Amino acid sequence: MNKEDLKRKVTDVIDARERHEKTNFNYFKGLTTISVALIGLLIGLKPPLIPNQSAKILFLITICLIGLCILFSLIVQFYEVIFDKQKIDARIKILKEYIDDPVGVGFVQFAELKEVKFFRLFKILTFSCLILSIISLIFYVYFSEFYPAIINH
Q1: Per-domain boundaries in the chain
Q2: Between 20 and 30 A from 65 (CA), which of 14, 107, 138, 145?
């Protein structure tokens, strides 16, 4: 493998990684936008009187879980911004090392940046809160629409 082939393969890997990071960021951005819209709709279209205590509690749980989903997804997006800055700093460091000693450093260097486990936890929490909010929303609809009808029969 010659120098040009290696450069092309490195460029392909970098491009694929950047596409993945952009897609990931856009996904969480879209999730945040949809969650904010959903919480606005739920609160704005809430009936003035919720029929029973179970439905009231489920409505509150749903709003809280969607709120947590929004918070966690914003934290993930903030981490993506921090991660981009770390990548830039790592590239600057590599370039400085290359400028100081072009022969000793070589022509290809990688700076592998690890994802912080703390932020991986926030990704998991985002999805967990989203799933739980959907489940609690389903139960809220059941208890507010169908459960009173079953009791009255």
Answers
A1: 3-152
A2: 145
